[in-house]
Amino acid sequence: MPKAVKGVLVECDAAIKQIILKIDSNKHDYIVEDLDDEHVVIKESQLQSLKIRLNDVRKRPTSGAAPSADVNVIGAR
To answer: What confidence tens digit (pLDDT) does each residue in 17-29 have?
Structure first.
């Protein structure tokens, strides 16, 4: 029997999406579907947790400029 997962469509720039993919690569807890270079469907229940993790990554010192946080939640899926 298929299992439905409630998701949220997120629009972000390519740099932020790469960070999201990296965060998700360990446990696959966040991404439901990787759509294209700027869109990804995130598990609705994990959205706040992902935002916190993104902010933590962005606060870390880097040798270059941190990517902008252009992340837009489009709506529930």
So the answer is: 999 999 999 999 9
